[in-house]
Design brief:
The complex is a heterodimer of chains A (103) and B (114). With 103 residues, chain A is an alpha+beta fold. Chain A has helices spanning 2-8, 79-91; strands at 14-19, 24-32, 38-45, 57-62, 67-71. Chain A has two helices and five strands; from the N terminus they run H-E-E-E-E-E-H. Chain A has a five-stranded antiparallel β-sheet with strand order 4-3-2-1-5. In chain A, a hairpin with a 5-residue loop joins strand 2 and strand 3 (38-45). Chain A starts with a helix and ends in a 12-residue tail after the last helix. Chain B has a single domain, classed as SH3 type barrels, CATH 2.30.30. Chain B is built from two helices and six strands, in the order βββββαβα. Chain B has helices at residues 61-65, 74-101; strands spanning 2-4, 9-17, 23-34, 37-48, 53-59, 70-71. The longest helix of chain B is centred in the C-terminal third of the chain and has 28 residues, at 74-101. The mean pLDDT of chain B is 91. Classes of the chains: A alpha+beta (103), B alpha+beta (114). Chain A binds chain B through residues 19-21, 35, 37, 43, 52-63, 65-66, 99, 101, and chain B through 1, 3, 5, 9, 19, 21, 31, 33, 35-36, 38, 50-51, 53-61, 63-64, 67, 69, 112, 114. Chain A: Keywords: mRNA processing, mRNA splicing, Nucleus, Ribonucleoprotein, RNA-binding, Spliceosome.
Chain lengths: 103, 114
């Protein structure tokens, strides 16, 4: 939950997501969910020529499981706050909710 | 457009999804890209298991018109793709041999083709 909340504070920031297949995409972080799936708007692919299939895509959804890194602007992050929250989380991890399917 | 973990690019109309990112695509075509060209194979309706999805991109029709990719017949693109794969495999063979000679451990399992 910690990083979900963390990413929520970064919505509307320009970030670069590097995937496990080495594809790197820069875009505006539009939304994030509990699985850390990411939605990026107005994307620009790093090293575009290697990935011609992305040329006609402006907005995309990235599955959280394929993300290697998310590169953020350093001014957007309050490192002290994050460090503090992480310390609290390590001391007392919040109980993981089971995924409930609503009928 | 959906990019899968095995490197395939599927283009179709997204009909439904769920919390696992399982997707239903209608009127799907598989588009194979080699260099500046591509070839399409019609595939019908796809139900994609979420774990295989890398990303889902919304195709901007204006942007697509302005792209400089040429469409070529499927047979040609399949031949070109095979040649590209073979070239890559040869390079990878050389690479792993050199690394092995240098004493590195060569990892052949990390071959998610995407």
């Amino acid at each position: 939950m910690l990083f979900y909340s963390f990413f929520k504070t970064l919505v509307d920031q320009k970030v670069t997501v590097e995937l496990k297949n080495d594809l790197a995409i820069t875009g505006t972080l539009k939304s994030v969910d509990q699985f850390l799936n990411i939605k990026l708007d107005d994307i620009m692919v790093i090293d575009e020529e290697r990935y011609p299939h992305m040329s006609s895509v402006k907005n995309c959804f990235i599955r959280g499981s394929v993300v290697r890194y998310v590169q953020l602007p350093s001014q957007a992050v309050d490192t002290a706050l994050l460090q503090d929250a992480a310390r609290r989380e390590a001391a007392q991890p919040t109980p993981q909710q089971a995924n409930v399917r609503v009928k | 457009m959906v990019v899968l973990r095995d490197g395939r690019k599927l283009i179709g109309t997204l009909r439904s999804f769920d919390q696992f990112a399982n997707l239903v695509l209608q009127d799907t075509i598989e588009r194979i890209y080699v260099g500046n060209c591509y070839g399409d194979i019609p595939r019908g309706i796809f139900l994609i298991r979420g774990e295989n999805v890398v990303l889902l991109g919304e195709i901007d029709l204006d942007k697509e018109e302005r792209s400089n990719l040429r469409e070529i017949p499927v047979e040609e693109v399949l031949v070109a793709q095979r040649e590209e794969m073979e070239a890559k495999q040869r390079l990878e063979k050389i690479r792993s041999r050199v690394l092995h000679e240098q004493g590195f451990c060569v990892d052949n399992s990390q071959n998610d083709l995407y």
